[in-house]
Design goal:
By secondary structure, the protein is an alpha+beta fold. It has 2 domains: 76 residues, RNA polymerase Rpb7-like, N-terminal domain (Dna Ligase, domain 1, 2-Layer Sandwich), CATH 3.30.1490.120; 102 residues, Beta Barrel (OB fold (Dihydrolipoamide Acetyltransferase, E2P)), CATH 2.40.50. Helices cover 21% and strands 43% of the residues. The protein is elongated, with a radius of gyration of 25 Å. InterPro entries: NA-bd_OB-fold, RNA_pol_III_Rbc25, RNA_pol_Rpb7-like_N_sf, RNAP_E/RPC8, Rpb7-like, Rpb7-like_N.
Amino acid sequence: MFVLSELKDTVRIAPELFELSLPEAIKDEINRKLANKVLNNVGLCIALQNIVSLGDSIILPGDGASHTEVIFRYIVFRPIIGEVITGKIRSCSREGVHITLGFFDDILIPPAVLQHPSRFEETEQAWVWEYPLEDGGKHDLFMDIGESIKFRVTGEIFEEASPVGGQSSDKASHSSSSASTTEANKTPYRIFGAINESGLGLLSWWAQDNANAEEGDEEDGQEDENT
């Protein structure tokens, strides 16, 4: 779920930070620049792990700040495809089940990969697994907000928003403004998951099965001791 990414950047240190040691100032600046930001095709940046190397610091003409080329390792959130993660249900919609990990909210489980058969209840705003019973009936299992849920990561999408330049006419200006809003509303990093296999979904669904399995293991252990 978390990986170490080696990155390279030229870090600018303003003159008012010269009283700090260079490594300390660079660490603060890197974290200020990257913490809780999404890097395209890298992931969600969490925290600086360590600095690998520092290049020479230079001061450019007309700029009193120092500029230092830095190679560093950063802790990044980017789950592996196929990895199983436990989160909580943030909300449900016809688009699917929206999951949060607390520090990351843009996780979606589409309807096609929910437990089958499932339906969306408009009044409850919740997805429901129609669990089949042995007598041919069904038992409704609701996916309520706040419930812990285990899912498998099936995909990811990075979207990089690019700035849109202004235009002269009112119509063009309105069009540019709308485009800018669309770009600003883009989610830079989204994860897709699935729960359509045994053992995945709400933890409460499988709690009884897990308890029975543990009881069976304990009984087997006691029989072995008696023999």
